[in-house]
């Protein structure tokens, strides 16, 4: 069975409820993996999910460990989550640069997908900072180094090419509600655009490949129409199979 490692796509919400003079707080933990998990498992893939708060403990520290997976997916997870484990940030000690490990994994023949979101590419307020990380060389697009969000609440439909990744998928895709603005690098395959900007781009790095999918694999940018689309599983399967060629 083909194995997929998904890092990120989780968050904690801490709310303050103010009721006149009195107030109280609540905290909830959520993930956005259910649509992606269901989709790829229906196509015969096995998914391992490491949420943001467990990256420093559970994300592989060697290329050999990453080689257990056919593709690594980063979704709504910023570079700081990889670069600032407690060992370095709180204790002032050296630690493994896991983004360098991902870089070597791809260079040696691995596959990497970065999906869009508020904490992807450069991200909201430029906080994701991948343009200053080892992955700047690996990704098939250039990160802007500033707030790169394009919010489209009225919805925007991507333009997809006749590439084999879209085989048996209609040309008319569901709408998206936003994406990360990037620019494609030279010698890459731009499979689809959105508002004229890169949407799906594939590039080679060393012996491996990387993919940029610049909108979200889940709501809110990934609309309900997209994540519940009958071709949502087909697209991911087609993409992963193409990366294996």
Automatic annotation (TrEMBL):
<dbReference type="InterPro" id="IPR029062">
    <property type="entry name" value="Class_I_gatase-like"/>
</dbReference>
<dbReference type="InterPro" id="IPR010768">
    <property type="entry name" value="GATase1-like"/>
</dbReference>
<dbReference type="Pfam" id="PF07090">
    <property type="entry name" value="GATase1_like"/>
</dbReference>
<protein>
    <submittedName>
        <fullName>Putative cytoplasmic protein</fullName>
    </submittedName>
</protein>
<feature type="domain" description="Putative glutamine amidotransferase">
    <location>
        <begin position="3"/>
        <end position="243"/>
    </location>
</feature>
